[in-house]
User: Fold these one by one.
Assistant:
Number 1:
Amino acid sequence: GEDVEQSLFLSVREGDSSVINCTYTDSSSTYLYWYKQEPGAGLQLLTYIFSNMDMKQDQRLTVLLNKKDKHLSLRIADTQTGDSAIYFCAESEGGSYIPTFGRGTSLIVHP
Amino acid sequence: EAGVAQSPRYKIIEKRQSVAFWCNPISGHATLYWYQQILGQGPKLLIQFQNNGVVDDSQLPKDRFSAERLKGVDSTLKIQPAKLEDSAVYLCASSPGQEFSYEQYFGPGTRLTVT
């Protein structure tokens, strides 16, 4: 199976919270990331979390890490139409830090 | 500061032709990466440079792909000859150094279509 798995689509109403989930298989993952990709653009690093952390908050973004279940989530509060994009979960091991990406979750925000 | 620049943005070629992509990283960034992103998938690393030396090219199909970063700044990625399965977006990224590979800055990518 894939090293990093995430659901392909999520549709939310503007103003609601979005929660994008991800699972990974590598227990030696050191960093876990969330990237955003808008149409026709490259990837933008939104946030990352060290594996010894449970939670990280940055303005409207909250990342939760359950290391036991190898589960990572990204919560976007007060989702706006500008948040519509593909969100990639990724993990890397210490040493190389090269991220292994999931297939991406397409977030659609409708009025 | 200026971001990672890539050109061309789009390229259409026939199979068996050759193509080259160019990348200019963020000024001062020592580490440069090339990724291949096939439609519907996440990016996969092709090659990583530290200054003008190759750190990791284990995933680069060396029979047809080559890359160089001669002066430790700009980089080119070449495919010769191209196959249909090479159709993808080729992303260039940079980071201040290898130890900062967790913080990579991506360019807009070059979308290659091989017909």
Number 2:
Amino acid sequence: RKEVEQDPGPFNVPEGATVAFNCTYSNSASQSFFWYRQDCRKEPKLLMSVYSSGNEDGRFTAQLNRASQYISLLIRDSKLSDSATYLCVVKSGYNKLIFGAGTRLAVHP
Amino acid sequence: DTEVTQTPKHLVMGMTNKKSLKCEQHMGHRAMYWYKQKAKKPPELMFVYSYEKLSINESVPSRFSPECPNSSLLNLHLHALQPEDSALYLCASSLGQTSNYGYTFGSGTRLTVV
């Protein structure tokens, strides 16, 4: 079983739609959780950290459920510029960042 | 300065060549990382340096040799690579290996082995 699992997509949504991505992780000792965004042929960029209390940054909301070992990302009012691959990332008990395979999002006019 | 700078951006090398990838950051981060990313795959960890000492080696073949000359610099020396080593090599840094902050990535070196 992979340490971090995501639905690979692609998610094809119209502008203005709300889209949700899910992720599960296998190591209960995992310490920190993140969503990264990666554009084609570019480096991953930190989108937001994820906390048990849930956190919001503009149109983006992230949630963590430690009991279920489940992480989510909600994007409201999708923009064309949101098209990218969204990587669920977990810091393992060995202080290593482990990446999920990524979920591809394509927002169309 | 909130950047991780990698050079060169592109590299083509033959299987008998020796080359080096360079990474630099001036954010005062004390942990630095090398990741390898193949097309349509997530980044995979290769090496971790913490306070200039090698902390993690993910069983990487010896044809890849990391070096951390000081707290701002990280090199990856390449020798006798194979075509399957062609990939995007990403350097990253963080405040410390145990910090709960995410990593900052450089824009990568796109390596082609011919």
